């Protein structure tokens, strides 16, 4: 695992003592999950047309307005890019490398994003993992025949609660006199997801990449951003979310480990203003995170956990994956295929993948290997 930049500066990986979560399974309160296949008006979703045309947009909107926030722009006018560096003989001649700089206006100044592209040398377009900020071992990915497209999401918005908005991409597109986003507008995680989508705009033009096989992968806070990007944007063919926990892929009604209140108190910039109103009433949320996983359907999705990462609620992640299954079944695809949490180090699932491994919070080679195995299975590689 290699961070592209130093996110430990604020030591945000370690929850301070006063943020200690609840870790006793017997204290998880009873809860009822919203049914992904029942519309807000009570109607049932019984086919994929109703899912795609009615329920999916409805759920997407609920996540957008209550949690991640609405982006104020899609692809900005004037956005352009240039290839700024290249090496046709990386990794002892087995890979090609290039650097693309995406500019988000017609000018060659910030906001911009440097994108590093590493592709195994081959005559045909390659499948890739698109990863931001905290990336897997590149040599491992290339050796398995996948390319790696990386960027540092913090280049467009810093992960600092007091300056994220003021110094980030959201403020750039807002009127100059705005001091903060409206309660339903985007937070930093949505801004990072937006960056992945703009990288995808570039990827669509790169003939060395198989545009139908772009797998978005994120770890922890960037795993939350990967989930939201994958939900919003169906150009991402697969989604991998490693230990994304609260606000990523775990059931928040469990109140296990990091809770909605804890995350909003510690990282108020990550989500929108409306999400804070649910701090002490998570059962009033019209969604839970099984529904975010379901928004990826019928595309393959993989959520993973680590035994030592109780903060990220491994069981809550399993339960979210499990509760997303009915939507995959609607598409005729098998989801997890198991009813109990699998043993440590035993990946499970068909269109919804899950594993819990030994060890602490981190994106390890084990995780990367299992993600690649899953992608290979679906791509018959
Ligand atoms: C923690 C945060 C988690 C997770 C993690 C990380 O401090 O509470 O939600 O995102 O950081 O990004 O490593």
Detailed description of the structure:
- The protein has twelve helices and eleven strands.
- With 381 residues, it is of the alpha/beta class.
- The chain has a single domain (25-77, 124-379), classed as Alpha/Beta hydrolase fold, catalytic domain (Rossmann fold).
- Helix 5 (188-203) crosses helix 6 (221-232).
- The longest helix has 21 residues, at 48-68.
- The radius of gyration is 20 Å and the shape is globular.
- Bound molecules: beta-D-galactopyranuronic acid (GTR).
- Beta-D-galactopyranuronic acid binds next to loops.
Helical stretch tally = 12
* Helix content class: 25-40%
Per DSSP E runs of 2 or more residues, the count of β-strands stands at 11
* Proportion of residues in extended strands: 15-25%
Mean pLDDT: 95
Major pleated sheet: 9 strands, mixed
Bound molecules: beta-D-galactopyranuronic acid
Low-pLDDT sequence parts? 5-12
- The arrangement of helices and strands along the chain is EHEEEEEHEHHHEHEHHHEHHEH
Output the CATH topology.
Rossmann fold
Distance between the termini: 24 Å
Biggest sheet strand order reads 2-3-4-7-5-8-9-10-11
CATH class: Alpha Beta
Whole-number radius of gyration? 20 Å
Reconstruct the topology from this structure:
Layout: E1 2-3, H1 48-68, E2 80-90, E3 95-103, E4 112-120, E5 126-132, E6 134-135, H2 138-143, E7 147-151, H3 164-167, H4 169-173, H5 188-203, E8 209-219, H6 221-232, E9 238-242, H7 260-266, H8 273-276, H9 289-294, E10 301-306, H10 314-323, H11 325-330, E11 352-357, H12 365-379
Parallel strand pairs: 5-7, 5-8, 8-9, 9-10, 10-11
Antiparallel strand pairs: 1-6, 2-3, 3-4, 4-7
The structure holds beta-D-galactopyranuronic acid.
Beta-D-galactopyranuronic acid is lined by residues 12-13, 15, 220-221, 245-246, 258, 263.
């Amino acid at each position: 695992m290699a961070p592209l930049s130093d996110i430990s500066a604020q030591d945000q990986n370690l929850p301070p003592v006063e943020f200690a979560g609840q870790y006793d399974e017997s204290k998880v309160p009873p809860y009822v999950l919203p049914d992904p296949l029942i519309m807000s008006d009570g109607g049932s979703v019984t086919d994929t047309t109703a899912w795609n045309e009615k329920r999916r947009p409805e759920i997407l909107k609920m996540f957008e307005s209550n949690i991640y926030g609405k982006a104020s722009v899609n692809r900005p006018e004037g956005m352009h890019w240039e290839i700024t560096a290249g090496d046709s003989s990386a990794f002892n001649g087995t890979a090609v490398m290039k650097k693309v700089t995406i500019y988000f206006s017609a000018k060659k100044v910030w906001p911009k994003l440097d994108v590093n592209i590493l592709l195994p040398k081959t005559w045909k377009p390659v499948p890739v993992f698109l990863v931001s900020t905290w990336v897997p071992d590149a040599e491992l990915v290339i050796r398995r025949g996948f390319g790696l497209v990386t960027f540092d999401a913090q280049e467009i918005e810093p992960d600092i609660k007091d300056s994220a908005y003021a110094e980030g991409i959201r403020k750039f597109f807002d009127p100059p006199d705005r001091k903060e986003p409206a309660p339903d507008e985007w937070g930093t995680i949505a801004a990072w997801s937006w960056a992945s989508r703009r990288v995808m705009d570039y990827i669509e033009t790169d003939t060395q990449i198989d545009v139908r096989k772009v797998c978005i992968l994120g770890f922890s806070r960037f795993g939350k951003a990967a989930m939201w990007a994958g939900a919003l944007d169906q150009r991402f063919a697969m989604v991998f979310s490693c230990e994304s926990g609260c606000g990523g892929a775990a059931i928040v009604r469990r109140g296990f480990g990091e809770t909605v209140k804890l995350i909003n108190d510690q990282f108020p910039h990550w989500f929108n203003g409306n999400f804070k109103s649910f701090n002490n009433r998570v059962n009033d949320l019209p969604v839970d995170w099984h529904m975010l996983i379901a928004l990826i359907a019928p595309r393959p999705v993989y959520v993973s956990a680590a035994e030592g990462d109780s903060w990220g609620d491994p069981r809550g992640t399993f339960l979210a994956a499990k509760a997303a299954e009915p939507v995959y079944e609607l598409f005729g695809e098998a989801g997890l295929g198991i009813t109990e949490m699998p043993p440590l180090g035993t990946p499970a699932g068909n269109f919804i993948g899950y594993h819990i491994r030994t060890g602490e919070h981190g994106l390890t080679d084990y995780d990367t290997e299992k993600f690649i195995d899953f992608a290979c299975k679906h791509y018959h590689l």
